[in-house]
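Beta-peptidyl aminopeptidase BapA
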Amino acid sequence: MTAPYIGHLPTGPRDAITDVAGVTVGHCTLAHDACQTGVTVVRPHAGNVYTDKVPAAASVLNGFGKSIGLVQVDELGVLETPIALTNTFSVGAVAQAQIRSAIADNPEIGRAWPTVNPLVFECNDGYLNDIQAMVVAGDHYARALNGAGVAVAQGAIGAGRGMSSFGVKGGIGTASRVVEHEGARYTVGALVLSNFGTPESLVLAGQHVGTELASRLAQTLAAPEKGSIIMIVATDAPLDARQLRRLSLRAGAGLARTGSVYGHGSGDIALAFSTAYTVPHGAASAMPAVAMLHEARLDPLFRAAADSVEQAIVHALWHAEAVIGRDGHRRESLRDVLKLS
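Structure:
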């Protein structure tokens, strides 16, 4: 049984963020007893991201989060490292690993050249994972980075290993949508780290299944929203940073459709980037002369972003198997609880 399909737009060949040419994803999963966590890395292209930056922008829907690197992205509108996802207490270790990796490729960083802006997003996996153990190390980031490819595993893998959504197992999900408009064809892909939602709120492809889910989980009282979600949106459409911020905001439409209200304790952050061109690091190089899409042509991309994010969340729930972690805590799979398989 396949996951419910969101919207009417066609997918790319993999129905994944890697349908955007050049984008790759890698995971490193740590799954042993109380250790249920990991790292996921999204590479915007296969080259040197520090010297050939990609345009990007982020939207913070609710800022209950501990990410690093967003301030400079907001100021300069570019990425200069791959994007890393992990648990809350591992942000520092992964950021340091990103810095070391960038220095290895560019030895003048922090000397003759400016410093580098690491970009790490997080969600709290402390229910299943012994987050205080802080087991994620630089080598785990390196494994995820070096293992990045176009095939994207989903569910309880990488940074998603210990995540929970709607009272069941959450994790990594991805999807893509293709738009054709006025003779042009563009792909929008999304990858989410899903760790949000209360059982009674779940809407699955337009069907409110939350009441049934809460009943099957024997939940009688609605708990406050204390989870988070990170939403990464990639496109090959030529957009500048301002337009990419507009695109990132539409991730919130896909998130809301699943039943989220961006609760007080939820960190809901979306980042969008374009692979249509790169921005050179060196001032001696000319800035790219790229014709950006007109604002009036963005609507199909907005729809594709909302649909691909919603689909990615559905995929995260659909592919995640049950996990037992810290102190015997357990999260069942959505498919098992609702008997969907």
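The chain is about 25% helix and 30% strand.
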